Protein 1
Amino acid sequence: MSNVNYEQDGNIAVLTINRPKALNALNSEVLSDINQAIDDIDLDTVRALILTGAGEKAFVAGADIGEMSELTKQEATEFSKLGNDVFRKIEQLDIPVIAAVNGFALGGGNELAMSCDIRLASDNAVFGQPETGLGITPGFGGTQRLMRLIPVGKAKEMIYAGNNIKADEAKDLGLVNEVYTVEELLPNAKKLAERIANNAPIAVRMSKHAMNTGIDEVMDEAIVTEENDFGNCFESEDQVEGMKAFLEKRKHEPFKNK
Ligand code: DAK
């Protein structure tokens, strides 16, 4: 797949969107390639995924404006569904996904980053939803995810006015967890991915499910979601080993994802 690179190293994998000449803008081909690459992940061995963009300028500069400009209403709906389905697949993937945002994350790029569990940024990263200046609304979840991640008034300002924010402000707002130099971004994303990969995969998966499901539920339902996910861990060998190792005051054996 020419539009994405996928590399697995042990238990972690890096998916790089590779269309740097167009600042990694998402056309339907790129979206299909991301979709295929996600489907091909070996979830028995990969325990954390990093998503990043090729080149020095951009994570993803948005959906492809050239392709979108020609769409009919029917085609636009299909394009929006393709993007939404891929982004939702990333959001609901059984392993945590870290966005390593290495430059512009505009429109669909910011929306893609927001579909990930965690965002880390380089100090030259720029986040924004410029769609209203193009005569459209954000179409890959931006109207919904941004206001769930940062204060509603700030999300509305970014979307109505098309104001971009830089990495430091994104950190202050909680949109990104940490800011690094360009060179240090990927190594630090890998360090975090490795820390995640060292923990019990079923427990991480159940935690992701509980948080992602519970955030859209009322508290009385959300705690039941947690109860079930907590209970599910007790059918795993990793739970037995993790607790046994603690009680025996030793380091646990590498977790087996079983
Ligand atoms: N689409 C297509 N090409 C793009 C692009 C994009 N989003 N962003 C950049 N490029 C291309 C440029 O056209 C240029 O191509 P050439 O002219 O070299 O062939 C190349 O990438 C380099 O860009 P620049 O020359 O512009 O580079 P600069 O450093 O000067 O500027 C920039 C960088 C990121 C500030 C600028 O490129 C820019 O403003 N880009 C557009 C950013 C943007 O507006 N992004 C939001 C796109 S809209 C929906 C579904 C989805 C969406 C909405 C609705 N439904 C179906 C309902 C999502 C919408 C969006 O994401």
Note: The mean pLDDT is 96.
Protein 2
Amino acid sequence: MTEKKTPTEATSEVVVPERTNSRRRFLMGAGAVVGTSAVAWPMAGCQPAAEPAATPTPAAAPAHKAPSSHVAPGQMDDYYGFWSGGQSGEVRIMGVPSMRELKRIPVFNRESATGWGATDFSKKLLGGRMAGDTHHVHLSYKDGTYDGRYAYVNDKLTARLARIRLATMECDKIVEIPNSQGTHGIFPQRHKTGLVLCNSEFRTPQVNDGRDMKDPSKYAAMHTAVDGETMEVKWQVMVEGNLDLCATDYEGKYSFACCYNSEGGVTLEEMMAADLDHLYVFNLAEIEKAVAEGKTITVGNSKVPVVDARGADSVYVMRIPVPKSPHGVNIDPTGKYACCAGKLSPTVSVVQIDKIADAFAGKIKPRDCVVAEPEVGLGPLHTAFDNRGNAYTSIFIDSVMTKWNIADAIDQYGGGSANPIRAKVDVHYQVGHTNASMSETKEADGKWLVALCKFSKDRFLPVGMLHPENDQLIDISGDQLEVVHDGPTFSEPHDAVIVRRDIIETIQVQDRKDERFAMYEAWAKEDGVELQSTNKVIRKGGNKVRIYITSQAPKFGMNEFSVKAGDEVQIIMSNIDNVQDLTHGFAMCQHDVSMIVNAQDTQSITFTASSQPGVYWYYCNWFCHALHLEMRGRMFVEA
Ligand code: CUK
Ligand code: CUA
């Protein structure tokens, strides 16, 4: 028998740590450089196995009233949550505040359910790569708020940026970022659907062809601009420091990137050495001017123009010194402040954005743009906002969310007596990202906050060696922070945005406006057929066979067809049902073929027919009808 405590027993043993007192040791004077005393802390946080239940930060007592997040059966949520999917390579859609998972959108991953990674279109986008690591998902903007058209998501693993068309919630574009590894922070411009800025976190030799491998002083990183409409890479800025998280202002003037490795180190110790690193500010107008005037280079095989901004501050880039190995940078909903979380410093550095022009002009020092540096807790990572002038910073090492007031932080920094800290709440445990409802827009509404916790430890039934993570929902509508929901998640959403539901308008049957339809139409034209009415086998010469087939519940348009052993078979299937949610699939036994075809959609998939002659059943693998099981047919593979 294991000696498991009931939740009640666990709660009764709660010893609330004296957080306030322990934090005093790290208090710093305004503008002071943080010492190295905080350095040891994150290491403890990185080794959760070494800190077992001996020092738990247990849950608050369970509330017995219905939580404010309760969404009754049959009721719908007020918000769409777009969660990145981490190592799964996907994007997830959650309902907020219920925290119910509504959909998974495959992006950089192979997914059996939909055939993503196997269909012709997805293979074309993926180019043979079948793994990804999505960290940051952001939506396209107009006039400082979401326009409901696109979501963008990074792939850290292969330095790519993908776009999801929100009408269909499907990925429609993927672009690879040249001269980059570890594409991490991304952020779209907020005044219109303009550029999507992408940071390479890992510095590499430029050109990375075997030269300078052992000389990290020659490594550099890229801040890359992708056109959010065409998804073409427009330009890159080369800088010496690594670039972590990204943000844009509300006016289209600047983009921001945190640099935690100003040392240019390649080992942990080297990267942590300096007490000050940088918040980079990119001057977009000056960069675009340089690109237009051809003051650029190219790097390696890439044709993308590169502005070389390595070294000192220039008209292109300014480096604002901030303590220490900073991580997240977030812009408040008024557009006035950039908040850069210290990670190895217990502070958030607040940059007043309208001072930046003077710093670029040399009238003030870059550091003079910092107007507050409140102490928020050990290991601050990311900051979200409400519509009442408050900020909410996720504190990794302390496992808390800290609510603080921006105006009071500025007052305190200027020598005033205000205490900016408003409230703290324990979260469970080791919170990474946080975000609040509409927080990344000028329409922040201060209702809900999520804390995406990296470890759940004792919060859920154990399920083997890997525990779920824990996405906690916090009610921020009052003065205090109230944790109202635990949401276990599988590997490993990093970030999320919470979007008012009226902004998103999806289609219920395919409108055939996706880019991939041009591909199907071209094939149909070549073969002289109509996609949505043709059931026909067309031999293309050699061993290539194209098969047009329709589906309408509960039947395929073709009951059987014949191919030869080893043929390259392309199935082009059109679902001609015109009914919401009437999805069919096409699955071919023993051939690794499985794909979804939604109402009025067309999809195609190519495979090699077995070398073993015989009967192979194909069937509909998405439930569509009482006779769904009978919706099948035979492929005859002839010798
Ligand atoms: S993150 Cu990607 S490694 Cu804070 Cu957005 Cu953690
Ligand atoms: Cu068609 Cu199931």
Note: The two ends are 61 Å apart (CA to CA).
Protein 3
Amino acid sequence: MELENVSQMRRDQLFEKLKVHGQEHLVRFWNELSETQRSALADQIERIDFPRIAHLFADRDKASEVVELVDRAGEPAAMRLGDQKNRFSPESAIGRGADALTGGRVAVLLVAGGQGTRLGFEHPKGMFPIGPVSKCSIFQIHVEKVVAAARRYGAPVPLYIMVSPATDLETRKFFAENENFGLPETDFRIFCQGTMPAIDDQTGKILLADRGQIALSPDGHGGALAALQAGGALAEMAERGIEQVFYFQVDNPLVDVCSPEFLGYHLLAGSELTSQVVAKQDPKDRVGNVVEVDGRLRVIEYSDLPDSVAERRRADGSLQIWAGSIAVHVFDLAFLLRMSGRADALPFHVAHKRVPFIDEQGRTHQPEKANAYKFERFIFDLLPAAKNALVVEVDPKTHFAPLKNAPGAASDTPESVRAQMVALHADWLRRAGAELAGGAPVEISPLFALDAEQLRGRIAPGTRISQPVYFRP
Ligand code: UTP
């Protein structure tokens, strides 16, 4: 049979399949596409769960089920990093976490599939040159922490990086060019998350980004669960004896990756999922709120939290809904394996967004207001299913510097992140006995020291610093 006939048959099959769901417009430009474009489009169509999309559109205005729970939201069971009043002492937690690391039972999962639209950087966010002195990338800083942890505990710490089609190729190339920043191939995996189509907010029709291209976006950091399973990463972790997975996001260079104390509380409490939180400064802080409802922890997004509840205070005036999630978690691998077997372990959240598209005539539109729904899963929605889930409070000054916005914005900018990095490293240096003069920026590579204590042995007391310095081995 001639190629053109085969292609026509393929188009007809797709058309029939799409028609059942009212989405046959997706092959409207079929005849104008090259063979390669046709097969790419067919591939995209095959991956779409059309009944699910129809459901999500039908339920778009349904209030999130969380709204009904909000009134019963109470304080989560919490420990605080370094606090002797915790149920377990910091020393015992550090010992237990260090044991897990020494035994090679901890893997790291870094999610880096987001599109980073607010930052406006034209490469994956992990490539952003955040180092205040070194100008090194966020990826380099994260990976050096993993390499340093593996050295410190004398056991491999495998790193799994989740990318999306938006960040996949460039991320792989960047790591290949930089020889994985020192991580051996056997301890380094990049895997790609799934996507979801954007749909027109009036009609529920899936949008075309181009004639042969559906408007797809990454399916949220919660997509990690399905992608880890589909790509075989969970099975691989189990095979190599991993028991805990330390999870964090690419956009926070202050994460204390593999913190033994944090891991230790998780293990001592027999928790399946432990999350780092910071005390909210303001009832309306735009963070997910970790609360306890009916004996289970869960995250309520700020958008779902009515002011009346957000503003509730305890007798001492402090906020009752106080715990803001900073998206650093430890998961038990057994918990992830159990949840990955459940197709609907994580719900989809709907976001109303501006999404460029082409219309029936093939004209491109750049909407000025929200025109489409996008769908994402959030990893923290696993919390209610976790046994003995726990939160650990950390100090935002030393643990949380999110890079979200472009330079010059009001908060969470490259400037604010660098300032926090410099402040933290300057503090470590002072504690190691250095004298800092003139406010010159300082930066410490994780390969030089992972914390103030490690730095103490590496700096001669009385060292005077009056120029920008980058400490590295
Ligand atoms: P955000 O939701 O803040 O998105 O992601 P973003 O991509 O950083 O930025 P905007 O909203 O487009 O400006 C939080 C973290 O989750 C990851 C991101 O890479 C970031 O580390 N993420 C987000 C994924 O890995 N996949 C997704 O589908 C979404």
Note: Residues 3-20 form the longest helix (18 residues).
